[in-house]
Amino acid sequence: MSSKTGLICLVACAVSFSAGYLLKDSQTKVINLSESHDSQSNAVSQPDPVRDIKLPSSRKPSTPSQAAFIAEQDPFDAIDDFLNRYKDTNYLTIPNKALAPLYLQLSQLDEYQLQQKAEELISQLPNPAASRLLGITLEVLAESQPLQALNMALNINDTEQYKWAYAWSVLSTWSANAPVEAFEWYVVQDFKQPHLKGFGTQNMVSTAVLSGLYSYDKSLAVSKIAELSQQNKITPSTMSLISQNINHSDEFRSLLNALGSAQNPDNGAIEVVGEWFSKQPQDAAAWVNMLNEEQKSPRLFRHALNRWVESDPSQASDWYIKQFNEPEKMMAISEAASRFAKKDPKAALDWVDSLGRSDTQNAIEDLLQSASYDDPDFALAHLDRVTEEKRKISILQSAIYSIKRHDPQRAQNIIESSPYKRELEEYIKRINDY
After folding, report:
1. C-alpha pair distances (Å), 177 with each of 140, 193, 242, 317
2. Alpha-carbon span 365 to 379, nearest angstrom
3. What global pTM score does this model have?
4. How far is the C-alpha of 326 from the C-alpha of 333, rounded, in Å?
5. Is the dihedral of CA 86, 92, 95, 98 positive or negative?
């Protein structure tokens, strides 16, 4: 699926989600109105201090009357009115408020009527009003007949640019309402089939389906993930998304046990560990420390560092460098210092100095290079810590460019007074020409 198509699908799905939100609000208003009407018809009117409050004259009580009209209007008339009103309008400029009442209208139709309406709208594509209405028609149909709705979406002509937005909307509805059925459909699909190729990768579909299943039944989802992991059908992005919704260490352990090993770089275990480090780093660190040496890897350590440093860069850096033997420790210090510097360059420099080692010159230079992009003044103030001239010029160039973006005159003043004026001017010229 192309980046343009992906962007369109994301926008279309966002629009559909907003319309669904408005639907729920509209449904509540219609229900409340109906209950209020029945109550008033069957009971003797009694003084009610809340009911009898006079609304300010500036407030227009139009919503209840509009909702009552919508509830009484024939669904097919409402749909026809919408299609006529917006037939010449751009897809993305059709207001969600115009769509919300149509959810109510479509909900009044039975499955056969919804299918017929969807087929009719498909025949009108690429009419923008028909496109918008088709999306919510398939969503409503997916509430009761998700497989039928999904097949209709997947069999739309590929020239329809919102085709995959419809399919993803249906799959999301299905995964939320009947996650077990959605999962059972997923595991038997052959994603090499022509009608599924544009649906995105198998990885994308598994992410949606497994996320729905995990929200529904964690134990069942973990058992299915274990089965898929043994078949090499689990990917890092899938596990990353699922683990974002986990907040307890027991759940992280259970999920990692299902994946089997953090040694496999392709089963998503490392992504789960990283998410764990971002939420309960001490528990995650204890778990990693218990792994066999064969199960540990520099990639696992690096992922842990990147997530832990967000909350406690000092502890994260201390833990990280302890994972390496002495021959590798100098490089580990440099990596930790660079990552630390993105959060707090001064604290990072203090941390390196506190190690009391004589082999941290490279770490200091890497730290200052990292800081030069977001905190150029700090980098300039500590250039005297850099011994190699070539590296000093590189840090200075990055810092000057960062300053120039916000204060061109100040950057020019620094260049004019610098002993490396020629190198800095050439660098700025290359950047501008690029």
Report:
1. 12, 26, 18, 44
2. 10
3. 0.70
4. 11
5. positive
Query: Quick one: three-class SS letters along 90-115?
Result: CHHHCCHHHHHHHHHHHHCCCHHHHH
CA distances from 278 to 140, 207, 273, 315, 320 (A): 38, 21, 9, 13, 14
- pLDDT (tens digit, 9 = 90+) per residue, 265-316? 678 999 999 999 999 999 999 999 999 988 899 999 999 999 999 999 999 9
> CA 116, CA 73: separation in Å to the nearest integer?
20
Nearest by Cα to 174 from 201, 147, 153: 147
Provide the pLDDT for residue 260: 80
CA angle in degrees (0–180, nearest 5) for 118-133-166: 70
- Assess contact for 180 and 220: CB atoms under 8 A: yes
Would you report the helix, strand and coil content of the chain in percent, each value rounded to 5? 75, 0, 25
- Polymer length in residues for the chain: 434
Nearest to 185 by CA among 153, 148, 220: 148
- In the chain, the N- to C-terminal Cα span, in Å, equals 30
DSSP assignment string, 281-315 = HHHHHHHHHTS-GGG--HHHHHHHHHHHTTT-HHH
Radius of gyration of the chain (CA): 30
Question: How much is the pLDDT for 264?
Answer: 61
Which segments in the chain show pLDDT lower than 70?
Answer: 1-73, 158, 198-201, 261-265
Q: Which string of b and e fits 270-292 if b means at least 16 CB within 10 Å?
A: bbbbbbbbbbbbebbbebbeeee
Q: Is residue 134 within 8 Å of residue 125, measured between CB atoms?
A: yes
